[in-house]
Amino acid sequence: MTNDRQFSVSRRKVLAGLGTIGIASAGAGLGTTAYFSDQETFQNNQLTAGTLDLLVDWEEHYFDGSAGMEYVEYVDPTDEGAYVLPAVENPDARAIAVRFVGDGTDQENKDAFWDATSIEALPDPDNDGIQDSLDNVDVCALGPEDGLRLANVGNEDAEERSEGLYQSNRTSNDHTSAGDPLINLGDVKPGDFGEVTFSFHLCDNPGYVWVNGMLDEELTGEGVITEPERNDPQEVDGVVELLDELQVRMWYDPDCDNQAERTGDVDVMLAIDTSGSIQGQEQTDLEAGIGQFVAALPTDGSAQVGAVSFGGGNVTGLSGLAAPGSFSLPSLSYGGNTPLPAAIDIADQVLDDQGRPDALPVIVVISDGGPNYSDDTTLTYSATVGGSSYTAPRTDSGFSANDGTVGYDGGSTDSSVNAAEQDETAVVADLVKAGAGGSRIAVLNIGDDPNADLGDGTDLSVYLQTEIASSGFYRETPVSNFPDVADDIANEVTVEEEVFFNGTLRAALDAMMANDGRGIPLDGDRTTGFDEVSDPENDPDRDAFTGQGVTHCLGFQWWLPVDHANQIQGDTVAFDVGFYAEQSRHNDGAGQTPENGSAQNGTPVAPTQE
Description:
610 residues, 6-stranded antiparallel sheet, 6-stranded mixed sheet, 11 helices, 20 strands, 19% helix, 22% strand
């Protein structure tokens, strides 16, 4: 029922009315209704939404054999002090290797080369191609009038607002004009290499960050196919081979110096597969490759190397940690199964026991298959390495599927690789990699069929890369090619800074388009065991990045190994690279579902089905 006398008034009107009634009442009652009273008021309460603004800056380098040539000389990849960009993917190519030269120290000569090859930056108010220092600058408070202000990139009105790639404090020179793509090179040849160091800053709140990207298919293509390209046996019609020839690595660059480098000591344990699947010439190639690997390690006292083998139901100690020049590979015995978890465990124990406290610990697994071992849960594996005895599984919790048994619990009765063996070995690998003192595990898949089905539908390469190797440290090559790429592998696995991706540009873009376009989830705490490429976005080991404008740097390097490369003539590759951030409060890092049908990198995605 309605009431014609209903009405509404504002709070002010209500208070005014009550005030009038109060005055009238006080007059009528002569004060008899008055009480002692008091009012405490917290005034001007406010709720203000926080902010999450991601700002970026960068410095880009490019070497094509001209600018910076006075600071380098070409050398063999195995030469002492060589700076090596490996060529592992293509057996016909060879690594790029230079040594830095000049009148200064090695580091000073390297820095001079990097300055000479810096082609653009932001902020760069003096327009010399080198980024100006942001030390002790409150980057989040910089405005348009500040020469050091950082960038918001990718907005549709960027040109109108003179922001991002159109900012006036971006380098303007022969390489770069306002609005140009960041990597904008039109005459790339084998032997060229370049690098961009991005730094990103979360203003105000901490947040989770992804690096993402996508291929621009409209601008990517084979172009005009020349006669040499058409006649090249590696030319495939309709395939842009440049995507597969260009190599990429991405890494956290905590000192923001544009260089993925090995600056300290490194201790390396080889875990060598000697199971029955490696036969005849394969054994010769394997042992030759190991010799080449050891020979490529530094001989300045910074590196040590040791080895165990695993096969025939045993783990065998071959050498304790020693200088590369003192390493000698004994005769290897081949046959039987593949007790991979025991080999990883014992190699890690050797590093813990014989390694140097400040050295980077690295296990290099060289294998052609998945784990396969006895189902006897009372069986343990013992090896004497460098005069000391080690047993696997160790007695620490988690180093086998069931702590109540002394041996491994996932083994099989035949030569097949079962799911339990895969899972148990992956757990051991995770424990070895975990924590600030964890070992890096690099895996070289030397199988004839690197993508072999392990028997349950699992792809061998996927398993070794996602479950065993540290992020960015998986490679595959036929064992016949191992001696030719061993020096590249040695240079790659001993880089001290945390590399989380190594591979082709095609594979890099695939990774950066993952997770509904959010891309590769980055980790704000590099001491954890989080694997950027393989682990889920909301993995408990993944941490958010600090806010308040703190600088976080990431390196993105590309190179084109030396090869005749006729198959890439005229190819053009265009792609986007970006960063995506979400607040960390009330968020486990799993990432938001796109609301507008496009992923964070712009890739169309199917709507979520409820």
